[in-house]
Amino acid sequence: MAASRRETSASNVTRVCPEITSTTPQPNLKLSFFDVLWLGIPPVTRLLLYPSAPPLRTASHSLISSLSLALSRFLPLSGRLAASDEVEIAFSGNGIALLEAEAEGEIGRIANDDVHDWEAFRSLVPDLEAGELLAVQVTEFAGGGLALGFAFSHLVADGRSIWSFVEAWADTCRAGGVMKPEMAGAAVVYDRSLIVYPSEAYLNLVSSGTPNYPDDVHKSGNIKSLKERAASTTTTVSTFVAIVSHIWITAIQAKKLNHEDTTILVFFADCRDRLQPPLGPNFFGNCVKICTVKAMSGDLIKGGDHGLSFACMALQEEIRKVGENPLEELERWTEVFSELSEGRMVVVSASPRFRVYDMDFGWGRPGRVELVCMTLDGHVALVEGKEEGSVQVSIALPPSQMDVFASLFHLV
């Protein structure tokens, strides 16, 4: 039986601090509009499963020392929300919690793509204490293998940033807990004053509702044919546009919306290279714009490839607008959340560019990577898949719609 909450037992908690050579106190880091947009959102929880990992007693020292070094580069993760009227990160010097745990059973069962045991996944990621920004849990299975789970506050980082941190941690661990000079690379930038925008708005989101347990559908060999179908009646489309359009249409079909019903697609565009001046690839924090595309359900489920082409053109138009003016109508970004209708939306997070299966801590590539915190009806997570050129698609839908979605999703 896979690990469940009651079958996973904690054995040790270590506070891991960044290895900082200077003793100079770090000033508080004021968060930007891009950060504050996520205020009130529950922690993001990610899980990586390593069936071939060594025993925890063998891996523990290297994991902890490499985590300390990685936190030194990505310092905001080691802070906590400041107890003040400002939305800031304070560097207390207490570090982050790393929980070592044990679980019954075999890791191989939940590492299998055909099994989605949400209860087991949830038991393998840590809880994030109020005010803290990152926590890590390493769980050793009785039958061998390690699960590496982490929870982080979206206030401190977007997907691109957090995976840059995990990659640096993995590279350092693989090197035996030593950050070689060539691994350090260019300095990580987290100065929010570099983000220049015409005005500032703050948002306090309140999360509510019960989770809809997600299921996974993996897409690999047919991405090329999907792009060709989409391009048959429009211009060439990207992998992202083709896949997201197909997901949107399939979700609408699974929900059996009426043709006249309005549906909304939400996705997030990275603005690092679109701002003036650009932030560059080493900026650590949040820098994504909320993008929305509205359509009538009937326009998406037209016969042949017309619905697919319609969706692709709508997405491309929104992406074009982001490229021209990434901060357009900045003050109205937060209004999108009040417009979302339960059951009529698809919210796409993460990106096929996130090479999550390259996170090798010295134990080989992970056997499975999951986003555990999918609790919103219509939430979709995209990352690069296990096989070269593939995309892993995870979606959260009510059980009554999941089977329909899966049957319609496969590409032809």
Describe it:
- This protein has 412 residues and is an alpha+beta fold.
- It folds into two domains: 5-194, Chloramphenicol acetyltransferase-like domain (Chloramphenicol Acetyltransferase); 214-409, Chloramphenicol Acetyltransferase (2-Layer Sandwich), CATH 3.30.559.
- Helix content is 28%, strand content 22%.
- The protein has helices at 33-36, 56-73, 107-111, 118-123, 159-174, 181-184, 223-231, 239-255, 297-300, 306-324, 336-339, 399-409; strands spanning 8-16, 29-30, 44-50, 80-81, 88-90, 96-103, 134-141, 146-152, 214-219, 262-270, 288-296, 345-350, 368-371, 379-384, 391-396.
- The strands form three sheets. The protein has a six-stranded mixed sheet, covered by helices on one side.
- Helix 8 (239-255) packs across helix 10 (306-324).
- The two termini are 36 Å apart.
- 42% of the residues are buried.
- Residues 1-6 and 200-218 have low confidence and may be disordered.
Structure, briefly:
With 412 residues, this protein is an alpha+beta fold.
Search tags:
single chain; 412 residues; alpha+beta; Chloramphenicol Acetyltransferase; 2 domains; 6-stranded mixed β-sheet; 15 strands; 28% helix; globular; disordered N terminus; acyltransferase; Plant_metabolite_acyltrans; transferase; CAT-like_dom_sf; acyltransferase activity, transferring groups other than amino-acyl groups
Radius of gyration: 21 Å
Number of helices, where a helix is a run of at least 4 consecutive DSSP H or I residues? 12
Q: What CATH first level of the largest domain would be assigned?
A: Alpha Beta
Let me know the number of strands. Answer: 15
Beta-strand percent range = 15-25%
Question: Can you summarize the main beta sheet?
Answer: 6 strands, mixed
Q: What spatial form do the alpha-carbon principal axes imply?
A: globular
| Sheet with the most strands: spatial strand order | 1-6-7-8-3-13
**Portion in helices:** 25-40%
Number of domains: 2
CATH topology of the largest domain: the name is Chloramphenicol Acetyltransferase
State the CATH superfamily name of the largest domain. Answer: Chloramphenicol acetyltransferase-like domain
Structural class: alpha+beta
Q: Using the 3D structure, state the CATH architecture of the largest domain.
A: 2-Layer Sandwich
Model regions low in confidence, pLDDT < 50 over at least 5 residues: 1-6, 200-218
Provide the residue-averaged pLDDT. 85
